[in-house]
Write a structure and sequence with these properties.
2 domains; six-stranded antiparallel β-sheet; mainly beta
Protein backbone atom coordinates (compact mmCIF):
# COMPACT_ATOMS: atom_id res chain seq x y z
CA UNK A 1 0.00 0.00 0.00
CA UNK A 2 1.30 3.43 -0.90
CA UNK A 3 1.98 5.78 1.99
CA UNK A 4 -0.54 8.41 0.85
CA UNK A 5 -3.25 5.74 0.43
CA UNK A 6 -2.53 4.41 3.90
CA UNK A 7 -2.79 7.86 5.47
CA UNK A 8 -5.91 8.83 3.55
CA UNK A 9 -7.64 5.55 4.32
CA UNK A 10 -6.75 5.66 7.97
CA UNK A 11 -7.84 9.26 8.39
CA UNK A 12 -11.16 8.74 6.59
CA UNK A 13 -11.99 5.56 8.48
CA UNK A 14 -11.14 6.84 11.94
CA UNK A 15 -11.98 10.53 12.06
CA UNK A 16 -14.14 10.18 15.15
CA UNK A 17 -11.59 7.95 16.83
CA UNK A 18 -8.87 10.55 16.23
CA UNK A 19 -11.09 13.30 17.56
CA UNK A 20 -11.66 11.34 20.74
CA UNK A 21 -8.08 10.19 21.04
CA UNK A 22 -6.72 13.69 20.74
CA UNK A 23 -9.05 14.96 23.41
CA UNK A 24 -5.91 14.51 25.50
CA UNK A 25 -4.62 17.72 23.95
CA UNK A 26 -7.52 19.74 25.28
CA UNK A 27 -8.93 17.62 28.09
CA UNK A 28 -11.60 18.78 30.52
CA UNK A 29 -10.59 19.07 34.17
CA UNK A 30 -10.15 15.72 35.88
CA UNK A 31 -12.84 16.57 38.42
CA UNK A 32 -16.22 17.78 37.14
CA UNK A 33 -19.20 18.77 39.26
CA UNK A 34 -22.58 20.29 38.41
CA UNK A 35 -24.77 22.10 40.89
CA UNK A 36 -27.20 19.59 42.28
CA UNK A 37 -25.35 16.70 40.74
CA UNK A 38 -22.76 14.13 41.80
CA UNK A 39 -19.05 14.97 41.32
CA UNK A 40 -17.34 12.84 38.70
CA UNK A 41 -13.79 12.32 37.48
CA UNK A 42 -12.88 12.28 33.80
CA UNK A 43 -9.94 10.72 32.01
CA UNK A 44 -8.31 11.32 28.64
CA UNK A 45 -7.96 8.19 26.50
CA UNK A 46 -4.45 7.27 25.46
CA UNK A 47 -3.49 7.27 21.81
CA UNK A 48 -1.28 5.03 19.75
CA UNK A 49 1.91 6.13 17.98
CA UNK A 50 0.11 5.59 14.67
CA UNK A 51 -2.77 7.89 15.65
CA UNK A 52 -0.29 10.47 16.89
CA UNK A 53 1.62 10.38 13.60
CA UNK A 54 -1.52 10.74 11.52
CA UNK A 55 -2.62 13.70 13.62
CA UNK A 56 0.69 15.57 13.32
CA UNK A 57 1.48 14.67 9.70
CA UNK A 58 -1.92 15.71 8.37
CA UNK A 59 -2.51 18.78 10.55
CA UNK A 60 -3.33 22.19 9.14
CA UNK A 61 -0.33 23.81 7.46
CA UNK A 62 1.63 20.59 6.86
CA UNK A 63 3.21 20.52 3.39
CA UNK A 64 4.93 17.15 3.54
CA UNK A 65 5.84 14.47 6.05
CA UNK A 66 7.92 11.29 6.11
CA UNK A 67 7.87 8.38 8.54
CA UNK A 68 9.85 6.23 6.09
CA UNK A 69 7.14 3.60 5.86
CA UNK A 70 8.27 3.11 2.27
CA UNK A 71 11.85 2.86 1.06
CA UNK A 72 11.07 5.40 -1.69
CA UNK A 73 10.84 8.08 1.01
CA UNK A 74 14.55 7.51 1.42
CA UNK A 75 15.71 6.75 -2.11
CA UNK A 76 13.85 9.66 -3.74
CA UNK A 77 15.93 12.15 -1.75
CA UNK A 78 19.19 10.28 -1.03
CA UNK A 79 22.39 11.80 -2.40
CA UNK A 80 25.62 9.81 -2.28
CA UNK A 81 28.68 12.00 -2.72
CA UNK A 82 31.10 10.53 -5.21
CA UNK A 83 34.07 11.39 -3.01
CA UNK A 84 32.98 9.18 -0.12
CA UNK A 85 35.56 6.60 0.92
CA UNK A 86 34.90 2.87 0.92
CA UNK A 87 31.34 1.76 0.14
CA UNK A 88 29.20 4.90 0.26
CA UNK A 89 26.02 2.85 0.29
CA UNK A 90 26.89 1.44 3.70
CA UNK A 91 27.22 4.89 5.30
CA UNK A 92 23.63 5.94 4.58
CA UNK A 93 20.87 3.42 4.20
CA UNK A 94 17.19 2.72 4.59
CA UNK A 95 16.13 0.55 7.50
CA UNK A 96 12.71 -1.06 7.58
CA UNK A 97 13.09 -1.61 11.32
CA UNK A 98 13.37 0.69 14.34
CA UNK A 99 10.70 3.03 13.05
CA UNK A 100 8.77 5.01 15.63
CA UNK A 101 5.38 3.81 14.38
CA UNK A 102 4.87 0.06 13.87
CA UNK A 103 5.38 -0.67 10.19
CA UNK A 104 7.49 2.44 9.56
CA UNK A 105 11.21 2.61 8.96
CA UNK A 106 14.03 5.12 9.31
CA UNK A 107 17.15 6.52 7.71
CA UNK A 108 20.38 5.28 9.24
CA UNK A 109 23.72 7.02 8.88
CA UNK A 110 26.26 4.43 10.00
CA UNK A 111 29.90 5.52 9.96
CA UNK A 112 32.73 3.01 10.54
CA UNK A 113 35.90 3.98 12.38
CA UNK A 114 38.39 5.77 10.17
CA UNK A 115 35.73 6.94 7.69
CA UNK A 116 34.33 10.35 6.85
CA UNK A 117 31.10 10.39 4.85
CA UNK A 118 29.54 13.32 3.00
CA UNK A 119 26.36 11.63 1.80
CA UNK A 120 23.09 13.26 2.76
CA UNK A 121 19.30 13.00 2.57
CA UNK A 122 17.95 16.21 1.11
CA UNK A 123 14.32 17.28 0.95
CA UNK A 124 13.13 20.21 -1.11
CA UNK A 125 10.49 22.46 0.45
CA UNK A 126 8.48 22.05 -2.77
CA UNK A 127 5.68 19.50 -2.66
CA UNK A 128 5.36 16.49 -4.96
CA UNK A 129 2.53 14.05 -5.77
CA UNK A 130 1.62 12.22 -2.55
CA UNK A 131 2.57 15.11 -0.27
CA UNK A 132 -0.23 16.65 1.78
CA UNK A 133 0.48 20.11 0.40
CA UNK A 134 0.67 19.05 -3.25
CA UNK A 135 -1.59 21.08 -5.54
CA UNK A 136 -1.34 20.28 -9.24
CA UNK A 137 -0.32 23.38 -11.18
CA UNK A 138 0.71 25.30 -8.07
CA UNK A 139 4.04 27.10 -8.07
CA UNK A 140 4.73 25.44 -4.70
CA UNK A 141 4.42 21.98 -6.25
CA UNK A 142 6.14 19.94 -8.93
CA UNK A 143 5.13 16.74 -10.68
CA UNK A 144 8.67 15.34 -10.77
CA UNK A 145 11.24 14.94 -8.03
CA UNK A 146 14.62 16.21 -9.31
CA UNK A 147 17.33 13.63 -9.77
CA UNK A 148 20.45 13.98 -7.62
CA UNK A 149 22.26 15.44 -10.62
CA UNK A 150 19.81 18.37 -10.62
CA UNK A 151 19.90 18.92 -6.87
CA UNK A 152 22.15 21.95 -7.15
CA UNK A 153 19.92 23.58 -9.75
CA UNK A 154 16.57 23.40 -7.94
CA UNK A 155 15.34 26.99 -7.61
CA UNK A 156 11.67 26.58 -6.71
CA UNK A 157 9.68 26.56 -3.49
CA UNK A 158 11.43 29.43 -1.68
CA UNK A 159 10.36 30.59 1.76
CA UNK A 160 11.51 34.15 2.30
CA UNK A 161 10.67 37.58 3.69
CA UNK A 162 7.52 38.98 2.11
CA UNK A 163 9.53 41.79 0.47
CA UNK A 164 11.13 39.24 -1.88
CA UNK A 165 7.96 37.59 -3.16
CA UNK A 166 8.39 38.98 -6.64
CA UNK A 167 7.67 35.83 -8.65
CA UNK A 168 6.06 32.40 -8.34
CA UNK A 169 9.25 30.78 -7.01
CA UNK A 170 8.43 32.30 -3.62
CA UNK A 171 5.68 30.30 -1.91
CA UNK A 172 5.87 31.08 1.82
CA UNK A 173 7.41 33.08 4.61
CA UNK A 174 8.12 31.45 7.97
CA UNK A 175 8.13 27.65 8.35
CA UNK A 176 8.49 24.82 10.87
CA UNK A 177 10.53 21.63 10.65
CA UNK A 178 10.00 18.83 13.16
CA UNK A 179 12.26 15.79 13.20
CA UNK A 180 12.84 12.84 15.51
CA UNK A 181 16.38 11.58 15.78
CA UNK A 182 18.30 8.95 17.74
CA UNK A 183 22.07 8.86 18.37
CA UNK A 184 24.25 5.92 19.25
CA UNK A 185 26.19 6.11 22.50
CA UNK A 186 29.38 6.50 20.44
CA UNK A 187 28.17 9.43 18.32
CA UNK A 188 30.02 11.88 20.56
CA UNK A 189 32.48 11.77 23.40
CA UNK A 190 36.11 10.75 23.93
CA UNK A 191 37.33 7.22 23.26
CA UNK A 192 40.84 5.99 24.05
CA UNK A 193 41.98 9.58 24.46
CA UNK A 194 40.55 10.72 21.12
CA UNK A 195 37.36 12.75 20.65
CA UNK A 196 34.76 12.17 17.98
CA UNK A 197 34.92 15.16 15.61
CA UNK A 198 32.28 17.85 15.45
CA UNK A 199 30.24 18.45 12.34
CA UNK A 200 26.93 19.27 10.71
CA UNK A 201 23.79 17.31 11.51
CA UNK A 202 21.24 19.24 9.45
CA UNK A 203 21.16 22.08 6.92
CA UNK A 204 18.32 24.54 6.32
CA UNK A 205 19.57 26.01 3.09
CA UNK A 206 19.23 26.74 -0.58
CA UNK A 207 19.61 23.62 -2.73
CA UNK A 208 23.29 23.32 -3.52
CA UNK A 209 24.41 25.48 -0.61
CA UNK A 210 24.96 29.16 0.05
CA UNK A 211 25.97 31.65 2.70
CA UNK A 212 22.43 31.80 4.06
CA UNK A 213 22.60 28.26 5.43
CA UNK A 214 21.34 27.62 8.97
CA UNK A 215 23.36 24.73 10.36
CA UNK A 216 22.33 22.43 13.19
CA UNK A 217 25.50 21.08 14.76
CA UNK A 218 26.30 17.52 15.64
CA UNK A 219 26.86 16.95 19.30
CA UNK A 220 30.57 17.74 19.55
CA UNK A 221 33.16 15.39 20.95
CA UNK A 222 35.77 17.41 22.74
CA UNK A 223 34.62 16.86 26.33
CA UNK A 224 32.02 14.30 27.45
CA UNK A 225 30.70 16.74 30.05
CA UNK A 226 29.77 19.33 27.46
CA UNK A 227 29.75 17.45 24.18
CA UNK A 228 26.09 16.80 23.57
CA UNK A 229 24.53 20.28 23.63
CA UNK A 230 22.24 21.50 20.87
CA UNK A 231 23.90 24.23 18.82
CA UNK A 232 23.40 26.22 15.61
CA UNK A 233 25.40 28.57 13.45
CA UNK A 234 25.46 29.97 9.93
CA UNK A 235 28.09 30.41 7.25
CA UNK A 236 28.99 34.07 6.65
CA UNK A 237 32.44 33.05 5.44
CA UNK A 238 33.32 31.69 8.89
CA UNK A 239 33.24 35.16 10.41
CA UNK A 240 32.67 35.62 14.12
CA UNK A 241 29.05 36.64 13.68
CA UNK A 242 28.23 33.25 12.17
CA UNK A 243 27.95 32.00 15.77
CA UNK A 244 24.27 32.32 16.67
CA UNK A 245 24.58 33.32 20.31
CA UNK A 246 22.33 35.96 21.87
CA UNK A 247 24.82 38.59 20.63
CA UNK A 248 25.40 36.85 17.27
CA UNK A 249 29.10 36.58 17.89
CA UNK A 250 31.61 34.24 19.44
CA UNK A 251 32.38 34.72 23.12
CA UNK A 252 35.99 35.66 22.33
CA UNK A 253 34.89 38.57 20.14
CA UNK A 254 32.40 39.70 22.76
CA UNK A 255 35.10 39.74 25.45
CA UNK A 256 37.52 41.56 23.16
CA UNK A 257 34.86 44.20 22.48
CA UNK A 258 34.48 44.70 26.23
CA UNK A 259 38.07 45.31 27.19
CA UNK A 260 39.02 41.68 27.77
CA UNK A 261 36.80 41.32 30.83
CA UNK A 262 36.39 37.55 31.18
CA UNK A 263 33.89 37.95 33.98
CA UNK A 264 31.40 38.75 31.19
CA UNK A 265 31.61 35.26 29.68
CA UNK A 266 28.20 34.22 31.11
CA UNK A 267 26.60 37.10 29.20
CA UNK A 268 27.00 35.19 25.93
CA UNK A 269 24.35 32.49 25.79
CA UNK A 270 24.84 29.58 23.38
CA UNK A 271 21.15 28.67 23.68
CA UNK A 272 19.59 32.13 23.72
CA UNK A 273 16.09 33.02 24.83
CA UNK A 274 14.93 29.63 26.05
CA UNK A 275 14.95 27.69 29.28
CA UNK A 276 18.78 27.50 29.28
CA UNK A 277 19.48 31.12 28.35
CA UNK A 278 21.27 31.91 31.63
CA UNK A 279 23.02 28.58 32.15
CA UNK A 280 24.40 27.66 28.72
CA UNK A 281 27.62 29.56 28.12
CA UNK A 282 31.27 28.94 27.31
CA UNK A 283 32.92 26.98 30.10
CA UNK A 284 29.56 25.73 31.37
CA UNK A 285 28.09 23.85 28.45
CA UNK A 286 26.91 21.28 30.97
CA UNK A 287 24.18 23.85 31.70
CA UNK A 288 22.74 23.53 28.18
CA UNK A 289 19.97 21.39 26.82
CA UNK A 290 21.68 18.19 25.72
CA UNK A 291 20.93 15.37 23.32
CA UNK A 292 20.29 12.01 24.96
CA UNK A 293 21.56 8.77 23.41
CA UNK A 294 19.76 5.62 22.34
CA UNK A 295 16.32 7.25 22.40
CA UNK A 296 14.10 9.12 19.97
CA UNK A 297 14.29 12.85 20.69
CA UNK A 298 12.03 15.40 19.00
CA UNK A 299 13.29 18.76 17.71
CA UNK A 300 11.04 21.51 16.29
CA UNK A 301 12.68 24.46 14.52
CA UNK A 302 10.81 27.61 13.50
CA UNK A 303 12.56 29.88 10.98
CA UNK A 304 11.35 33.42 10.21
CA UNK A 305 13.39 34.56 7.20
CA UNK A 306 14.35 38.23 7.38
CA UNK A 307 15.70 40.67 4.84
CA UNK A 308 19.11 40.42 3.25
CA UNK A 309 22.12 42.37 4.54
CA UNK A 310 24.27 42.14 1.44
CA UNK A 311 24.35 45.96 1.28
CA UNK A 312 26.17 46.17 4.60
CA UNK A 313 29.52 44.58 3.74
CA UNK A 314 32.39 44.16 6.12
CA UNK A 315 34.78 47.12 5.95
CA UNK A 316 37.56 46.41 5.40
CA UNK A 317 36.94 42.87 4.11
CA UNK A 318 38.77 40.08 5.86
CA UNK A 319 41.71 38.73 3.93
CA UNK A 320 40.71 35.80 1.75
CA UNK A 321 36.97 36.49 1.80
CA UNK A 322 34.70 38.39 -0.50
CA UNK A 323 33.43 41.72 0.91
CA UNK A 324 29.86 40.39 1.07
CA UNK A 325 30.72 37.29 3.09
CA UNK A 326 29.74 38.87 6.37
CA UNK A 327 27.36 41.73 7.22
CA UNK A 328 28.78 44.70 9.07
CA UNK A 329 27.20 44.27 12.49
CA UNK A 330 27.77 47.93 13.37
CA UNK A 331 25.95 49.26 10.32
CA UNK A 332 22.99 51.53 11.22
CA UNK A 333 21.08 50.15 8.25
CA UNK A 334 21.36 46.53 9.41
CA UNK A 335 18.21 44.43 9.03
CA UNK A 336 17.78 42.49 12.27
CA UNK A 337 14.58 40.65 11.47
CA UNK A 338 15.46 36.97 11.04
CA UNK A 339 14.00 34.82 13.79
CA UNK A 340 14.81 31.34 15.09
CA UNK A 341 12.91 29.34 17.70
CA UNK A 342 13.63 25.78 18.80
CA UNK A 343 11.74 23.34 21.00
CA UNK A 344 12.89 19.91 22.19
CA UNK A 345 11.26 16.89 23.82
CA UNK A 346 12.83 13.68 25.02
CA UNK A 347 11.30 10.31 24.30
CA UNK A 348 8.06 9.87 26.22
CA UNK A 349 7.60 13.59 26.89
CA UNK A 350 4.32 15.09 25.71
CA UNK A 351 5.33 18.72 26.15
CA UNK A 352 8.16 20.68 24.57
CA UNK A 353 10.90 22.56 26.33
CA UNK A 354 11.72 25.77 24.50
CA UNK A 355 15.51 25.91 24.16
CA UNK A 356 15.99 28.78 21.69
CA UNK A 357 14.33 32.09 20.85
CA UNK A 358 15.99 34.99 19.11
CA UNK A 359 13.97 37.05 16.67
CA UNK A 360 16.47 39.73 15.68
CA UNK A 361 19.33 37.99 13.87
CA UNK A 362 21.03 39.83 11.00
CA UNK A 363 21.08 37.49 8.00
CA UNK A 364 23.06 37.49 4.80
CA UNK A 365 21.95 35.47 1.77
CA UNK A 366 24.64 36.46 -0.74
CA UNK A 367 21.96 35.64 -3.28
CA UNK A 368 23.71 37.11 -6.32
CA UNK A 369 27.02 35.28 -5.98
CA UNK A 370 26.07 31.78 -7.15
CA UNK A 371 24.90 30.12 -10.34
CA UNK A 372 21.39 28.91 -11.18
CA UNK A 373 19.63 32.03 -9.85
CA UNK A 374 20.00 31.98 -6.08
CA UNK A 375 17.32 33.79 -4.11
CA UNK A 376 17.31 35.47 -0.66
CA UNK A 377 15.49 32.64 1.08
CA UNK A 378 15.45 28.92 1.88
CA UNK A 379 14.16 26.02 -0.21
CA UNK A 380 15.55 22.77 1.20
CA UNK A 381 16.40 20.75 4.28
CA UNK A 382 18.94 17.97 4.59
CA UNK A 383 20.42 15.51 7.06
CA UNK A 384 24.13 14.91 6.82
CA UNK A 385 27.13 13.08 8.27
CA UNK A 386 29.55 15.82 7.27
CA UNK A 387 32.25 16.32 9.89
CA UNK A 388 34.60 18.73 8.17
CA UNK A 389 36.74 15.95 6.73
CA UNK A 390 37.56 14.42 10.12
CA UNK A 391 37.26 10.65 10.40
CA UNK A 392 35.30 8.76 13.02
CA UNK A 393 37.36 7.64 16.01
CA UNK A 394 35.05 4.71 16.70
CA UNK A 395 31.99 3.48 14.78
CA UNK A 396 28.86 5.56 15.35
CA UNK A 397 25.41 6.03 13.92
CA UNK A 398 22.31 8.14 14.05
CA UNK A 399 18.79 7.51 12.77
CA UNK A 400 15.97 9.73 11.58
CA UNK A 401 12.47 8.36 12.11
CA UNK A 402 10.07 11.19 11.27
CA UNK A 403 10.28 14.55 9.49
CA UNK A 404 7.45 17.09 9.03
CA UNK A 405 7.54 20.40 7.17
CA UNK A 406 4.72 22.86 7.88
CA UNK A 407 3.63 26.47 7.64
CA UNK A 408 2.17 26.17 11.14
CA UNK A 409 3.30 25.06 14.59
CA UNK A 410 3.62 21.26 14.90
CA UNK A 411 2.43 19.68 18.14
CA UNK A 412 4.72 17.70 20.40
CA UNK A 413 4.27 13.94 19.92
CA UNK A 414 1.73 12.47 22.34
CA UNK A 415 2.77 8.83 21.95
Amino acid sequence: MKRRDFIAGTVLSSTSALTNAFGAISCPPSSVSITGGIPSRTTCPSITPQEDWIYRSTASGVQWAHDFRNSSEFTNFAYFESGDPQDVQSCMQYKSTDGIVPGSGCIEFNIPAGVHSRSHWHRFFSTFPGDKGYVAGSSASSTNIPTPQLWYQWRKGFYAHQDYHTDTNFVGTDFYIQYRVKFSSTAYGTFNGQSQPSGKLAFIDIAGGGDQVLLVQYPTGYDPALSNRFGMYTNFGNQSNSILTNYQMDVGDYIAAHGGDYSLVPNVSYQPGGAYNNSCYYGKFSGCWAYPVEEWVTILIHVIPGRDNQNTPTTPPYSGYRPLDSPNMSSPSLNKDTGIEVWAAREGATNYTKIWEKLDYAWLYNATSYSYGNQPGFNCFQFSTYRNGAKAVVPWWYRVGQVIFSKQFINCPQA
